[in-house]
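step 3/5: co-fold with uridine-diphosphate-N-acetylglucosamine
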Amino acid sequence: MEKLVIEGGRPLTGTIRIHGAKNAALPIMAASIMAEGTVKIQNVPNLSDIHVMLDILRALGCEAGHTGDTVTVNTTGVHEFHIPESLMSQMRSSIFLMGPLLSRLGRVELYQPGGCAIGERKIDLHLQGLAAMGAVIEETGNKVVCTAEELRGAEIMLDYPSVGATENIMMAAVMAKGMTTITGAAREPEIQDLQNFLNTMGAKIIGAGTDTITIEGVSELTPCTYRIIPDRIVAGTLMIATAVTRGNVTLEQISPAHLTSAIHVLKRAGVQITIHGDIMNVCALARPKSIERIVTSPYPSFPTDLQSQIMVLFSLADGLSVVKETVFEGRFRHVDELSRMGADIRVDLNSAFIRGVPRLYGATVEATDLRAGAALVIAGLAAQGTTVIEQIHHIDRGYEQIERMLGRLGAAIQRTSPVKTE
Ligand code: UD1
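step 4/5: write C-alpha cells
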C-alpha cells in the first residue's frame, strides 16, 4: 500500500492552479448519456473516482476516455441498464446514473450504495423523487430496479436539500413529459454547473442555485463540449493548509463566490485573503485565532467537506473552538488520528470541542475517508517531525497528485510504495 511521508514545518509558498471539481464532473459525466453522440467535458481532474465513472460508462456501452483534462464520451452504443455491483461498491456516485438511464433506456438496475465511513447515506430521497415522476421501484435485498415506460413531470418537495437527490431528479426530469418543480432543492454550485451543462445540450432548466428548480421537459438533447467549474473543496483545503503553515499562496482559476463561507471563517481566524477576479492570495503571519462555533450545513453555509480540514486549523489556534457537524452523522473519524498527533479534541454527539495546542507532532496515521485524509495531510505539513499517512487511496479520490501539488508549494512530501519482496 502506498503512503505519504511528510516532513512538517515548512510554510507553503507559491502559486498554484486549482483543478476542476470532482463533484461537478461526476454527475455531468453521468448526464452525458442522455444525448446520443459525442460529448466532451473539459477541466476534468485525473482522480480515481473519475476512472470508476469512466469504467461504469464503458460497462453501459459508451466509448469513454480521458486525455489531458478532457473526458470524451461517445454515448451512441448505450444499451446496458445494469450497473455491476463491483463498480457500484467502489463509488457511491454511481447512483447518478439512475436519472439518466431511466431517461434513456427506461430501466436501471443497481445496488444500494450502503453506508460509508462518514455516515449512513440513504438514497430514499432519490427514489421518492423518481417515483413521483412515474418510475416503478422494486427493492430486493440491496438490489434496486427502477423502470419507467414514460417519465412525467411532477412537483417534488425534498424534505432535506440532498445534493445527489436534487441532481438525480433534475436529470430524470430533463426529458420527462411536462414540467417538474423541485422545491427544497440543494443550492450547491455543482448543481448550477449541471444545469448549465444540460441547458447547453438543449434542456430547459431554471433556478439551480436557489431552492426551487423548474425543468420543462424536452424531447431530445444534443451532445456538446462543456468546461466544468474549479474545485472549491480543493481550493478550501489549500487555503487552510496555507493558514496552518503560516504560508503565502496564490490560488489561480478559482471561483471565489463559491468559497464565501470558507473565506469568512478564515478571515475570522486572522488569515489575510485578497481576491482579484479568479485569483486569490492567502497569507497567514500569526497563530490562528479560535472561533467560538462553526456549524456545517448545506450550501451556502460552511461545507461538511471542509470540516475535517478546518479542525486542524482550530487544533493549532489560540483557544477553544467548537465545530458542529449537521450533514453527516459519522464524520469525526479523523479526531482519533489528529489526537495521535497531539491535538486536544473532545467529541460530544455531533459537536467537537477543540482546544488549540501550540504544536502538533508527526505520527503514523490512517486516512479513514477522503476529507479526513486531506486533514491529516494538512496536519502533517504543520507538525513538527515526520508524519506517515496510510490508506491514501481515499485521498486520491479527490485530490489530483496531492504530493505534486503541495511539493510545488515547497512542502516536503513524498509518496512511497512498499518495497516488493519475492
Ligand atoms: C454530495 C457530495 C459530497 C458532500 C455532500 C454534502 C458529490 C459527489 N458528493 O454528496 O462530497 O459531502 O454532497 O455536501 O457531490 N440523505 C438522505 N436521503 C437521501 C440522500 C441523502 O437521508 O436520499 C442524507 C445523507 O445521508 C446525508 C445528507 O442527506 O446525511 C446529505 O447528503 P447529500 O446532500 O445527498 O450528499 P451527497 O449527494 O451524497
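step 5/5: annotate
The chain is about 30% helix and 25% strand.
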